[in-house]
Write a structure and sequence with these properties.
By secondary structure, the protein is α/β, with parallel strands linked by helices. The chain is about 35% helix and about 20% strand. It has eleven helices and nine strands. The strands form two sheets. The protein has a seven-stranded mixed sheet, sandwiched between helices. Strands 1-8 form a two-stranded antiparallel sheet. Strand 5, helix 4 and strand 6 form a beta-alpha-beta unit. The longest helix has 16 residues. The termini are far apart. The structure holds S-adenosylmethionine.
């Protein structure tokens, strides 16, 4: 028996029905290439191996490796890398992959950003996250939880909350509620625009209480009214995702970057 490490977000799912439901809602096809983040003790892994031809599991905790290898070594389609997912190199992949996992909650945003930045190699994610984060990911403008990820994912993808999960189905029990979400990335990769767009959104929300004329001054450089127009006196949560796209386009056109 391995003691769970809080620092690695280890709350192991005990309920087989929920594990099966997560895998089934990800709609796995035989030809898909899945990456499972943090297989832990293999709650989702078994069901995935039965449904798909290729599964790469990435687990940071070397204490879990012998148990995982032991359980799944007979499956030809099982592969395990004992590394930090945040260090994983997507450029080595031969095809676009699908991501699944009951995530370590302390690095959820970093995982989503990494997948987003590599979305030429990642088509979608089916992930368990903290319920509050699930709400934030799909928040619309005007709401308190609307933030960087809600804007970015709404422009470059599609987020769907699938179902809520109570603490009681894990061991040890987390202190928070959980939810399973699906994120699908759109297939557009205009990198120059994306980089600027990300900087603009991050700057605006990085100074959430300031008006855009202040928080985006580094991009508008004396042309605030031409570039920001009616948005100048607003705060970031008052803008729709498409408004940020419009601002980034105007900045690009003005040649100020
Ligand atoms: N999938 C298992 C389950 O459903 O029971 C475990 C889920 S547990 C919430 C998160 C898992 O992610 C743990 O096994 C933990 O060791 C692993 N993990 C934490 N940080 C990681 C990282 N940076 N890269 C890969 N795995 C990580």
């Amino acid at each position: 028996m391995i003691f769970a490490k809080k620092t690695l977000g280890q709350n192991f799912l005990q309920d087989k029905n929920i594990a099966q439901k997560i895998v089934s809602l990800s709609n796995p096809q035989k030809t898909d290439f899945f990456i499972e983040i943090g297989p832990g003790q293999g709650a989702l892994t078994q069901f995935l191996l039965e449904k798909t031809d290729k599964l790469l599991t990435i687990e940071i905790d070397s204490r879990l490796v012998p148990e995982l290898q032991n359980k799944f070594q007979t499956f030809q389609n099982f592969e395990l890398q004992n590394i930090d997912f945040l260090e994983f190199d997507f450029t080595t992949l031969p095809q676009r992959v699908r991501i699944i996992g009951n995530l370590p909650y302390n690095i959820t945003s970093q995982i989503i950003f990494k997948c987003f930045e590599n979305r030429s190699k990642v088509s979608d994610l089916t992930i368990m996250v903290q319920r509050e984060v699930a709400d934030r990911l799909s928040a619309s403008y005007g709401s308190k939880t609307y933030g960087i990820l809600s804007v970015i994912l709404s422009v470059y993808g599609n987020v769907k909350k699938l179902f809520n999960v109570p603490p009681a189905v894990f061991f040890p029990k987390p202190k928070v509620d959980s939810a399973v979400v699906s994120i699908t990335f759109a297939e557009n990769f205009e990198l120059e625009f994306q980089q600027l767009f990300l900087k603009v959104v991050k700057s605006a929300f990085g100074q959430r209480r300031k008006m855009l004329s202040n928080s985006l001054s580094e991009f508008t450089k004396g042309f605030s009214s031409e570039i920001l127009g009616n948005f100048a006196n607003l705060r970031p949560e008052q803008l729709r995702p498409e408004d940020f796209v419009e601002i980034a386009k105007r900045i690009l056109k003005s040649g100020k970057v």
